Amino acid sequence: MKLRPIAAIVLRQLYLMRSSPTRVLPLIAWVAIDIVLWGFISRYLDSVTSSGINFIASLLGAVLFWDFFTRVMMGVTMAFFEDVWSRNFINLFASPLLISEYLTGLVLTGIATSLLGLVVMLLLATMLFGLPWLSLGLLLLPLLLILFMFGIALGILASAMVLRLGPASEWLVWPIPALLSPFVGAFYPLSTLPAWMRAVGHALPPSYVFESMRSVVAGHGYSGSGLSLGSALAALDILLAAWLFTGIYRQAVRTGLLARHSAESVS
């Protein structure tokens, strides 16, 4: 891989955001709304219950982590959708651009947009509701890393799906985080789920993040083996997603699907 093509992909996205504030506003607005809404819900639950659970730390912290994961995934897919909407694939891949360079550019774009959302969420949650995220200490880094890697994997997977099925399948991408949320136990322990849902949850890296976060907030420490397994699963998911995207891209080139890519081509 060469750095210049990767930088060109990233630079294109930066130019798009710089020239259109409407592309930047959703990166901040939705996460801000979520933090404010769930922050007041958490504060209310703290005031009316005597369970000893710190809802600001457990519930609002879960919202912050889940929104970060969602922003990472959407950061990759939105960068890909820009090429879908502008029908720019032929222009891109007529150049000597490797598929690995293109994917790396999408990932770096996802990093930039997700970090922007994370900073906004941390500032709002800390200043408005006193979220004690520093209490997680260095554990915060592996938790965010697992969510980041899994978000990248899902972003690449969603992009591969749209590349194969066509732009009209874009609506299939948006519900993915909502469909996964019941299985990963973002807002409740996995033990509350039926056995088959727990089995699915244990195969998803975010479940280890939320279980560890709740355990630390409750003062019980965390499972190092669980976080290691979550990291390994997330890394494996990235490799599988990249392999799938590469295979679909090669098929699209071989069959001419890339040239026929239009809003009406879902097959």
Short note summarizing the structure:
This protein is mainly α and 267 residues long. 75% of the residues lie in helices and 0% in strands. It has one domain (3-255).
Detailed description of the structure:
By secondary structure, the chain is mainly α. The chain has one domain (3-255). It is 75% helix and 0% strand. It contains ten helices and no strands. It has helices at residues 3-19, 21-48, 55-85, 89-93, 99-129, 140-165, 176-184, 195-202, 206-217, 224-255. Helix 1 crosses helix 2 (21-48), helix 1 (3-19) crosses helix 5 and helix 2 packs antiparallel against helix 3. The radius of gyration is 20 Å and the shape is globular. The two termini are 32 Å apart.
List the helices and strands and how they pair.
Elements (H helix, E strand, L loop, with lengths): L2 H17 L1 H28 L6 H31 L3 H5 L5 H31 L10 H26 L10 H9 L10 H8 L3 H12 L6 H32 L12
Helix pairs in contact: 1-2, 1-5, 2-3, 2-5, 3-5, 3-6, 3-9, 6-9, 6-10, 9-10
Q: Termini separation (Å)? A: 32 Å
Whole-number total of structural domains:
1
Looking at how many chains there are and whether they match, the oligomeric state comes to: single chain
Query: In this structure, how is the largest beta sheet organized?
Result: none
SSE order in H/E notation?
HHHHHHHHHH
Mean of pLDDT: 83
Computed Rg: 20 Å
State the total count of DSSP E strands. Answer: 0
Please, how many helices? 10
The geometry reads as globular
Low-confidence spans: 262-267
Portion of residues within helices = over 70%
What is the strand content?
A: under 5%
Structural class: mainly alpha
